[in-house]
């Protein structure tokens, strides 16, 4: 591509910084009213600059026409309607049922994390998962009687889970 002449470079540099309204460009596409005198004389004396100015005006008018939209008197209402909270799946459930479902999946996630991470911490060397569960419950002693501490720990965990599942909760009102 051939190098642009210095006058074209100067004109392009000026036009890049220029901000002219579309109505002014439509009314005066040759720049008689909105171009400064030195740039106007440059455009009038050089046919390449005249063609460059014509391309600039055409592109600017095309740009203005492509983004023009008609006025929408309901715009504010549409925006406010679009910002209303979205109904989340399961949010209409009874809070207790929802808590049970969430608790179940938290428990499943905990079990999955344990089975994945147990070998990293050396917990899988003690035997199978069933043997580990029996040991945690205190059922793995020689006398096969459950340990009081193991049963107390499991009972406390179950009581805490039930308390959290059935704890009444207040939902914030979405209506103002």
TrEMBL record:
Transmembrane portions of the chain: 100-121, 148-167
Domain of life (superkingdom): Bacteria
Keywords: Membrane, Transmembrane, Transmembrane helix
Protein name according to UniProt: Uncharacterized protein
